[in-house]
Amino acid sequence: MLPRNKEWSTLSLPLLLVALVVFLQSVFQTGQLVRECVTLDQIKTGQNEAIRNADLERSDLETLVQATLNLARDGDKNVLPVIEQLRQLGIVASQP
Questions:
Q1: 12: Cβ–Cβ under 8 A, 6 or more apart, which residues?
Q2: pLDDT digits (tens, 9 = 90+) for 12-31
């Protein structure tokens, strides 16, 4: 039978290596998660800008549709084909 110190020294190197590998794995994964978090924040920022632009476009389109409906309500018959085209495009024009 080996003395106690000899047993400990034979087991200590593999245990230290396993502990080091676990630590390095944790460090690596933490770095990966931080990078992913930064990337997701950048994507979210880009989407927010696109959403703002889409909201502005929608607002402009709604203003245009309302002006077109006002012309139709005032009796302008030339606007009726435009309203029909808007319906075909899926833009529902309704009176305010």
A1: none
A2: 888 999 999 999 999 999 99
Kindly state the tokens that stand for 12. 């200590």
Q: State which residues form the domain around 37.
A: 28-96
Hey, what are 96's tokens?
A: 């305010």
Amino acid letter, 43:
I
Q: Give a yes or no: residue 93 inside a domain.
A: yes
List, in order, residues 6 or more apart from 92 with CB less than 8 Å away. 86
Based on the structure, what is the number of domains in the chain? 1
Cβ atoms of residues 93 and 65 within 8 Å = yes
Going by pLDDT thresholds of 50, 70 and 90, the confidence category of residue 76 is confident
What residue type is 88 in one-letter code? Q
